[in-house]
Amino acid sequence: xxxxxxxxxxxxxxxxxxxxxxxxxxxxxxxxxxxxxxxxxxxxxxxxxxxxxxxxxxxxxxxxxxxxxxxxxxxxxxxxxxxxxxxxxxxxxxxxxxx
Length: 99
What we know:
mainly alpha, 5 helices
């Protein structure tokens, strides 16, 4: 697939795709998810060959961040607000099962 075509799928310019490819700019998780769909590969494909030590550090960081987010989320008293936040997170995470 050309960079131009991928850019169309992602809603960005092909120059932005070039920056993603070179690592000059970071991708949002939702963009990575859309890229996987456009290229017909699972998101895990983009992590093949990543050093396991780096992955373990990332997982530890994610677990700490998830705990902080869950703690903050539980402080929100309005169930409608919690539901709206959950829906937003599921959309950003490209989780079709939760829509």
